[in-house]
Amino acid sequence: MRSLVFHLSLATVLRVILIGYGEWQDRNFLVKYTDIDYYVFTDAARYIADGKSPFLRHTYRYTPLLAFFLLPNVFVNFIWGKLLFSLLDILIGYIMYKLLKEYNISHNKMIFSVCVWLYNPLNIAVSTRGNAESLLSAVIILSLFCFYKNQLLLAGITYGLSVHLKPYPIIFAPVLYFSLSNRIVSLNQGIVHYIHKLIVPNREKLIFLLATAIGFVLPTCICYKLYGMNYIQESFLYHITRKDTRHNFSPFFYLLYLYEGNDHYLLSFVTFIPQVILLLTLAFTFHSPKDLPFCLFAQTLVFVSFNKVCTSQYFLWYLTFIPLVIPKLTLSLKCGFRYITAWLLGQGMWLFFAYYLEFEGKNTFLYIWLTGLVFLLINAYILGVLIYNYGKESQ
């Protein structure tokens, strides 16, 4: 336990130092350390403090709860939100440790896995720069912890809240539902029987569904009562119809770019098809409760990789589950380092051409798309390797 306290404390100090450095950089350099979204959050909180709608702030497309949480930015200190997001990082690390106790692995392996989260440079940078991803990650990990403790009411409420905070966790609904079947379901009994047993409701499934509905509907109705359809449009509908034709990692971005200005809602809809097929396949394959962390990781990786908008910030969504997946893999550190290097190189190639587009004004859209496809293949290959190695371990 001492080693856990040490790493939690060290990770906290590291984040506080970076927050302090960020304040210094913001005051002394043209390039700011603070994420632009943090100013958006703070402006929205300021509107709420004045008794107005947070959606008066252009580009604020989040739940009003986030702006309420950041009211101390207005009344206390501007760095409040950064401290909150960083402390949520630490809380996630602690909950992960408690979850890993369910794995029946050595203490050293648990600490190593937690450290993968606590010292991940992306996590640290995102939170200390003022991005709110740790809030969603904390709620999802807490829901998973409650799920493992068989506290289905609390698990459902927190899961429903996660969907309220950001719509994408809805992709986890099928596998969470399937995992509550009364007993392990085998394909040996026939495909019809297999699907029937997974879908048919039972007491546990109904409790979870009811709790999820409460966790989602209650805060959503409150926000709708306060801010009306403007809230629904900005927090939910925008993310469904959103398209980014400038440039991003999505394999579909170039196609959407070429059709920019045309009515391509059908094209946007078609981009969901690969996601739906792969997400359901993973849900049917890894529905066992012991496989949930791996399934949530794999589903999020698939969702992000095949999404019509895919940015670096989204990578944190699936990296959140990595510490819970590591102990169940048979990969050596050498192999793990090799795949991490390939993953980083894939991003590096994309960023190379993105730089020439953004800062040199070169028309590199085609090259950005091609390197995005290469990055997609790298992600697909890595996921295949992880599935293979995870399967070997869990047999």
Q: What tags apply to this protein structure?
A:
globular; mainly alpha; 395 residues; 20 helices; single chain
The radius of gyration computed from the alpha-carbon positions, rounded to a whole number of angstroms, is 21 Å
Identify the overall geometry. Answer: globular
Q: Count the E strands.
A: 0
Give the structural class.
Answer: mainly alpha
Main sheet record: none
Question: Helical stretch count?
Answer: 20
- The N- to C-terminal Cα distance equals 31 Å
What are the low-pLDDT stretches, counting only 5+ consecutive residues below 50? none
Give helix % range. Answer: over 70%
* Overall average pLDDT: 90
How much of the sequence lies in strands comes to under 5%
N-to-C SSE series?
A: HHHHHHHHHHHHHHHHHHHH
Secondary structure: elements and pairs:
Layout: H1 2-28, H2 36-49, H3 64-69, H4 71-75, H5 80-100, H6 107-118, H7 121-128, H8 133-148, H9 152-165, H10 173-178, H11 191-199, H12 203-241, H13 253-258, H14 265-270, H15 272-285, H16 292-305, H17 315-319, H18 322-325, H19 333-358, H20 365-394
Helix pairs in contact: 1-5, 1-6, 1-7, 5-6, 5-7, 5-8, 8-9, 9-12, 15-16, 16-20, 19-20
